User: Fold these one by one.
Assistant:
Number 1:
Amino acid sequence: MPAPNSRDTTLKKSSVSPLFFILGSIIVIIAALLYISWQGTASARLHDFAHMLMGTEVTLRLHSDNRREAEQAGQAAFEEMARVEALLSRTVDDSDVERVNRRAGSGPVTVSPETVTVLRAALEYAQLSGGAFDPTVAPLLDLWGFPGGDKRVPEPAEIETLLPLVDFNLVELDEQSGTVFLPAAGISIDLGAIAKGYNVDRGLAVLSAAGVKHAFLNAGGDIGLLGTRPDGSPWRIGIGHPREPGQVIGVLPLSGDIAVVTSGDYERFFEEGGRSYHHILDPSTGYPSRLLAGVTIVAPTAMEADALSTAVFVLGPARGMELVEDLPGVEAVLITPELKVTVSSGLKDIFEPVR
Ligand code: FAD
Ligand code: MG
């Protein structure tokens, strides 16, 4: 009914709309300028650091308003990671792992509580994966020349001789006394498939304690995240293409305190007789595992993700994905040598394939 009022309103609207339009435009422009300047400031507050540790380049990007605080936090994180490397590397003289290996067949060695923690986790993942992940694979690695030795394809008889020494059940870990004993000469342990992840967790813990809220720490494919990107958007993790160096096969947008770890056959390998041989060995055969070309694991901690990336790599696509789907909070992207990509249930909606 109210025609007059309606007309009034219409008249009023048409008389003020240019003003609204101008005011609205000004607000939009100011908001855009503020957003651009905030973005600029946010990226100006990103600080990048890099160091060689554990035989690989470790890169760190963190967000802080204060350059000095950022540098202090970054330095503290790298110092922590260097400390852990000195404890767990098997090539550093007098590290816990080097001492345990040196005393194989002679007697138990007292190690630090941290070494107990990482070794216990390694033995648990060995059990969980039915020995696909096995820290006693070290004698075989030495035979093949991984990671830093003279690389060659061994004779089958050489591998056969060493296989009885590769069995995680042989490791005598006494958590009460904090000792480790390898009961026969020739047995040795290598934590290369789990300690890098543990070290990323340590680096992030130090950053977090320093008040850092946004960080991206990458130790040669073992990535740990703190929070989101500074603008609130997820970090975008590229998954490397196993056969096209420098290209990505997919992207995972992820945020939160979470780890993303990749194991592949394309980073550390050598070629002989026209065939390539990489560093992830199947402990049951003594040869590089060839069921997968790349495994990316998403998990709450980098230690967990690291151990599982190696375990799943050796288990292959079927048994590997079965294990992943059984573990709460763990997700995976698997790439076969034929470049078939399989994504676990929890990543299906967010994985962005490239091409
Ligand atoms: P992952 O799949 O996570 O691990 C593969 C590595 O685990 C192999 O290189 C081997 O060491 C071991 N492995 C292979 N098969 C199995 C298996 N079935 N089960 C369990 N483990 C297996 N590299 C150097 O070249 N120089 C160094 O000085 C050096 N120092 C290091 C110190 C520490 C504390 C650590 C943790 C690693 C160090 N490395 C060093 C090793 C190097 O960085 C490795 O290449 C890396 O740890 C392997 O990680 P990845 O992510 O490539 O593969
Ligand atoms: Mg690993």
Number 2:
Amino acid sequence: MTSMIDVTSPADGRRVGQIGSQLRDSVSDVVASLRGSQPAWEGIGPHDRAGWLRRYRDWLLDNHDRLCGLLQAETGKPWTEANLDLPYVVDVTNYYAKNAARFLADQRPARHSLLTITKRQLVTRRAYPVVGVITPWNFPLGLTLIDAVPALLAGASVVVKPSEFTPLATRAAVDGWTEIGAPPVFACVTGAGETGAAVVDEVDYVQFTGSTRTGKAIAKSAATRLIPCSLELGGKDAMLVLADADLPRAANAAVWGGIANAGQMCTSVERVYVEASVYDEFVNLVTDRVRALRLGSDATGYRYDVGPLATSTQVDIVRRHVADALERGARVLVGGQNSGQFFEPTVLVDVDHSMLCMTEETFGPTLPIMRVADVDEAVQLANDSAYGLSATIFSRDTRRAEEVARLLQSGAVNINDVFSNLFALPVPQSGWKQSGMGARNGGVYGIQKFTRPQAIVTSRLMTPRSELTWYPYTASRTAVLRRAARLLGAGDLRRKLF
Ligand code: ADP
């Protein structure tokens, strides 16, 4: 019998739903059924698949309130934040639906040498039959669907495994696929880590978003099965505020970038480096804005700006980072305390890299701000990290900021904005170092990653009955081969001729 897992609200602990914990056999059955339906799905071609995805987009929009309601109940987020996932998914769907046929089109590369003059060369894209999408609790709908949609458009079947803490909105969203009568190529399995591990053991490609620890476990399992995985993991994103920055905009960006979603974003601003000449003014602006934030949870209302942390484990981590900073000489200018799973938005100063809050991922509403002498020191400190997901630079001199960006060890750099790379679908979103492997989005790559290239090389019919390299092996054929290699391959006349 399947055991059940309670889903509770992090705001007040009340039970908001229940899911089954699907074990290995059940996951295996689901994947087998998806595998059976996939060839026909791939066979209908990208135009018809795009048609289904557009119908699905409309269903999501028609069910927006219900889905966001479930998401809000299981995350406790402010209503505005609960409404962020679906607009992103709609944009992703439209982008890939519009471009799928072009991105997946056959390619006929030019022949590269006289040796292949008689060949016709074709590269087709063939989907991985079943893609598994395993996701965390911070953006339950968004992080599931922005990967499921391009995978489906690529012609794959998709099984999603949402976090056991926030499975309700995702499960309801996947039900919508059946409701619109689409082919049975999209399913949801529920459960905790064991269910995720079973998915990795069954599918042909794993798309994972979550912690670096779990990402590494998944990479190991995938390596054992020799299947690819794409990992979007943790971050410790730095913001660099240069002396010529628009300080009010930089302060607003730091506060939203660090505190939005209670700081529970892989791309949250986790540490800020400010050039000495503008440090005091910047800290004052940030502190004033953080003090004005309202902490609480009111379902579909607008009374609060910052919701609870998702789990008590997260609360423990944030408390540990703040306590460690204080012990090592940092000061809290605002915040610093928690009540249950609500952690006050917190500004820390007098911080340095001996402190956990500057080196380990906090994933909470903290903003440690450090004074630096100049840009060089800011770059050196920003790069002093095991992570490399994204970074932010504020400067009025955008050309110079682009030069500084090239010095940062990070998969993306946003200049005069936070997170804007996430919404620029033609550019890749990839984590360096401990922040991941592979990328999502990036135009053609965002959909091709769910496919394998298949090379079809055709010999035209007018070719001879035998080729030079086939049997029989003779001295004269080998001599012709050697001569041809010299004639066609050498870089100078002497070698070509002698
Ligand atoms: P977080 O700390 O953000 O919840 P995790 O990496 O622990 O991040 O979890 C992200 C997702 O990975 C969840 O859906 C979780 O159930 C799943 N998961 C956890 N452990 C494993 C595992 N060993 N194999 C596959 N999936 C896992």
